[in-house]
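Field reference: sequence -> structure
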Amino acid sequence: MTSQSLDTPHWLPALRRFALFTLLGHLLWEVAHIPLYTIWVEGTWGEIVFAVVHCTGGDLLIAMSSLLLALFLFGTGTWPQARVYPVFGAMLAIGFGYTVFSEWLNIEVREAWAYREIMPVIPFIDAGLTPMLQWLIVPFAAYFGALRRLSKGKGAPGA
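Structure field:
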């Protein structure tokens, strides 16, 4: 290793990869689960495409904000070589917590969107199962996918 590679910050490529993996993961998820919302049967193709793009953009903003807040609270200057799991846990809790709140607000209060009868709903919180799974699976894959490349030849990220 050269001294330049030792001095190169690893957080910037990790954030870039996380953003890319997050964008792709949420886009695929939104396309896959939009048939579970009423817009699928009531909206035009233009409205459906707009909803997918709009929701994917919102997902990206939520994910990046969750990660940045987690980094402020639990990260160090050596992330992602250190504090990988505390940052991940906080990011996941923030993103998932926001999703529970957002689903409640937009389904129950604002009535901005609605589930079709085929959407599995979690009892007690009346939130759709697929948005909850989305905010567990996509961030997990994006986070560890983004950090995986760092572990190849550069030392594995640590806890």
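Note: The longest strand covers residues 121-122.
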